[in-house]
C-alpha cells in the first residue's frame, strides 16, 4: 500500500504491460460508425500529480473521442455561470437505468436524474447555449477546456460529430421528449448539434489528466493560482462523478476503483484522487454497460498498488 | 477548514444549538406505529475519532431504533461468511427508485439492486440464516454488533419488531415476490421475522459511532487489534454506503455531506470519515425520501466546519 | 358462413379431428405441480345453444381445473351483491401487461386494472368474503355455479388448491402488496386460500357451456325463467371478457375469434355468442401468454365455419 | 329496447337536447393551439343505416378535425396494401397506458402495441409512405377517404397540421425513438409531416358516418357493390377499434357503449353496429383520457335506446 512517487512510472509501465497482455474482451461502441473505426486494442494511461508532475504509459499521447467525459466540463461551465440554479432543470441522483433510458424521464416529467446521463447533458447544453449558435457555444466550451488543460491545440473531430448526428435518433428522441414538457430554451436541433459536437472533442490521456487537476485541488488551478471553481463546488463535481459517472456501472466502479470518475463510450475514463492526483486512462473496448473494459481494470490495479481510494486512508 | 480536535466539542455543541433552534420540519415515520410514538424533536450527535476518543452532544445517549442502519451490520456478517458469493444474490448499484419499490425487482428477475434497499436486506437475512431459527440468527447478529461496539447491553426492541410485522405487508410482498423466483433458502415468514427484528435493534449515537470505527480504520478494530474485515472489504462497504446508503437521496447526501453513510427511518444516520472518524447522528423527523432531516443538516454543517469530505483534501 | 343447427355436430367433429391431428405445440402450465400432471393431449369442445340444446365432441365430459374462468363467476357474484360499488376497488381496462405483473399495481396505488387479472380476482375474493371463513365463501361460490350450470356435482379439487398454495408466492406477493395500501377487509391468508380454492373448481366443457348460458341471453336463465343478472349487467360482463379475458392475449383473441371469452391456465376457454350460443373448449397445452393453444385455434375455426363473431353480421 | 327506424330521428333529437342541456364538463384539447380555438360547446350526431339512410341531429354538418379517427383509414389502407405483413411492425393488443406513452416502446424494442396509439399510427404512416413525399402519400389517403365517404370535398386543414408540427415534440420523440431501433423506412421528418397531415383532415359527422359504412357490412360498400376490404379484414378492423379505439379508456367505452369505435382528440367518435349502422358523434370537450365527454355519453344513451350492443342481442 505504500509507494513513492519514483515508483509511479514503474507501476504504470507494469499495469500497461499486464492489461495489454490480456485476451481482448468487450466491444468498441458500434452505434457511432466513426468510433467503430478506431483500433480497438490501444491502451494509454496518464497520471498528473497535484504538484503538476505527469507520468504516463502506453498510448497516452494518442487523441481519442472524449464523448461523455465532456459532460464534466459542460456541467462545470453551467455551475460557473448559473450556480445552483441548474438543479432546477437537472437532478443529482444516480439513475439506476441504462444510460439512455427514456422511462425515467416520463416518470419524472422530463427532468433528468443527473447531468451525466445523456438527457441531463443535453439539458445542460440547452442551459448554457443562451440563444447563441452551436458554433458560438462550442467556441466557449473549447476555450474552457483549453484553459484548464493549458493546451490550445484541443479540437473537435467534426467527422465524429456528423456521424453522431446521423445515428442520433435516440438522443433526438430524448431531446424532443424533454422539449415536449416545455423545458427547452433553444431549438432542439441546435442543442443536439452542440451536444454532438462537445462529445466529439478529441484529447489525449495526458491532456485529460491535466484538465482534471482543478478537481484534485479543491477547485484551484495550482499552475496559475486561479480558482476554476470554489472548493465547495469542486467537491460537489467530484461527488457527482462518484455517484453518476459510469452510467449503470457507477456502483461497480465505486466498489472496484473507489474514486470519483467519468467514463465515455470512446473508451476514456477520467478519475480524481482528491489532494493527490488526477488520472486519465483510455482503451476502446467497452464492457456491457458502456465503460472501458481495460480502463476500469487498469484503474483497479492502480488503486490497489497505490492505496488511492476515497474509502480508505 | 482547519480545526483542532479540541474544537470538536465546541463544534458539536454549536451544531446542536443551531439545528434544535430551527422550526420543526419533516415527519416521523408513521407506517410503523411504534416508531410514531417517539418524541419527534430529539437530536443527538456523537463522533468517534480513529484513536477511540468520543465526543458527543444533545441526546447522544438516548436509545433509538436503528432500522436500516442494521443493514450495514448484516451485510458485513454476510461478507465475512460468504465473501463475494453474496453478489450472486444481490447487486451493488444504486437503485434510483423509492426505497421499497417492487418494479425494479420485476425488471431484474427478483435480484435486488443492492443490500441496503429493503429487498436486498431481506435477501441478506435469508443468506445468513442458514436454516436456523430467527432467534438463533438474531443471537449472532446481536453478538456481532455488541463486539464491534464493545457494549453487551445492546438489545432488540420487541415491541417495534412486532409493530413492523403487523404493518409489514409491503415487505411481505417483496419477500414473497423474490421467493416466487425460487430465490429463497428459508421460509419466507422466518426471514421476515428476522429482518423485522434486526431493524428493531436499539442503540445510542455513542454506541453507533463506536460500532462504525472498523470502517474508519480499513477494517481494523484498533482498540483490540482485531481485523473485523479486510482492508479491501472495509473500503467496499464504505463504497456501498456512499452509493446506496440513503435510498433515493444517496446522490443528495453525497452532494451535501460528501461521506459514506447509512440512514434508517428511525431517524439515525451513521457516517464514516476514512482514516479520521465515525459519526452517528439521530433526529426522528424525516425528509420526503426517508432520511433524517436534522441529521443530514447537522452532518452537512459538521463537514463544512471540519473540512471532512472524501471529495476534497 | 351459413350453417344449420343440424350441421353443428358435424362441424364440432371435424374441428376435433383437425386440431387433434396437429403436432403438439405449447406447454401445460408447470408452475402449479398438480396441473402439470394432466395428460396434455386431451381436447374437448361443447356448444350450448340459446334454447338449451347441447352439442359436444372430444373430451367434453372430462373434468378439468377451470382456474381463471372462475373469475367470471366470482365477478358476477360481486356484481349481484354490490353492484357498481365494486368498481371502487377494481378497474375495467385491459392491463397491457403479463397476467401477474405487479408493476401496474404500484403505478396505480394498489387498484388492479380489471377483475380478471390475478390481483383483481384476489380483490374480488376479498370483497365477497365479508368476514366469513374461506370455507363459507366457497360454499356460496360453489352454490352459485351449481345453480347456473344446473348441476349439483360440481366440486373443488383440494389437491390442486393445496398445490397452488404451496407455489403461490407470486399471488401472495400481489395480495400483501395490495394490503400494504390498506385495501384489504379480510386477512390476506384467508383471501388467498379462498382464491386458490375457487381457481381449483373442476368442471367439464359441457357443464361450463351450460353455466355460461345466462350471458348468451342478456342475463336470463331461460331454462327456469330466472334473471341471473340484469340485461345491462350481462352485457357488461361480456364486455369485460372481451377486453380482459385473455391476459395479454386479449387483443389477439378478439382479432382471431371475435367473441367475448375467458381463459384459464388449466387449458379451458369459455366464450359467448350473444343471443346464439355459449361455447366451452378445453385442451391443456398453452401458448406463450397462457391461453389454450388448441382451444383458441378450435374457436377460430368454429367462428369461421359458423360466421359467429360480434364484429360482423 | 325495441325501436323502429322511424323512431331514430326522434331518438337523435332527444339525445341532442338532453346532452346539450348538461353543464359543460371536460376541456378542449389544448396542446394543439389550433384545436383550442374551436367553440367547445358544439355537438353533432349522425347515424348511417346499413341500407344507406342517414339520420342526424345537432351540428352534424360542421367540419371538425378527425385527428386519431384517421388512424382507422390509414390502417385500412395498410391492410389493403400489405395484408398481415403490417403485424410485423405493429401489435394488436390494447396498450394499457396513456395514449402517447414511450415507456411501453422501450420495453418492447420500438414495436408499438397497436396501430391506434400514436406510435403505432406513425409506424403505419411510415409503412404506407413507400419512399414517396408526404404530399403524394396524403393524396392517396384523401382519395381513399373521399371514395368510401362518396364525397370529393374532404380536405386537410393545413393550419391544424402546422400547429401540430410546431407543438409535436412528443410525437417527434416517439418517431425518433422508433427510428433508433432501425425500424424506419422513410425520413423521420417526412413521416411526421404525413402523420400530422392525416390527423388534420376535417370531416362532418355525416361524412364520417358514411365513410364507416363498409365496416357495418363486412367490408362491402353496398352503394356501389365494391368490397373495400374482405369480410374477415372488416371484422378484424372492428375488433381493433373495440380493443384499442379509445386510448386508455377502451375498456370503459366497451363497458358503457358496447360497440367498436375510434375517438380523436378533436372530439369526434366513429362507431360501428355490425350489420346495422355506423354512427359519428362530435363534441370538443374531452374527458381525462382524451375521449369526447358528450360524445361518449350520447353513444351510451343511443345504445340504451336502440339496444345496439355487440354484447347482447
UniProtKB/TrEMBL annotation, chains A, B, C, D:
Q: What class of enzyme is it?
A: hydrolase
Which InterPro entries does the protein's record reference? Beta-lactam/transpept-like, Glutaminase
Any GO molecular function: glutaminase activity
One GO BP annotation is:
glutamate biosynthetic process
**Sorted alphabetically, which keywords does the UniProt record give?**
Acetylation, Hydrolase
Q: Which residues make up the binding site for substrate?
A: 68, 118, 164, 171, 195, 247, 265
Q: Which reaction equation describes what this protein catalyses?
A: L-glutamine + H2O = L-glutamate + NH4(+)
What NCBIfam families does its record include?
A: Gln_ase (TIGR03814), PRK00971.1-1 (NF002132), PRK00971.1-2 (NF002133)
Q: How does it assemble?
A: Homotetramer.
Q: What is this protein called?
A: Glutaminase
Q: Which species is the source of this protein?
A: Cocleimonas flava
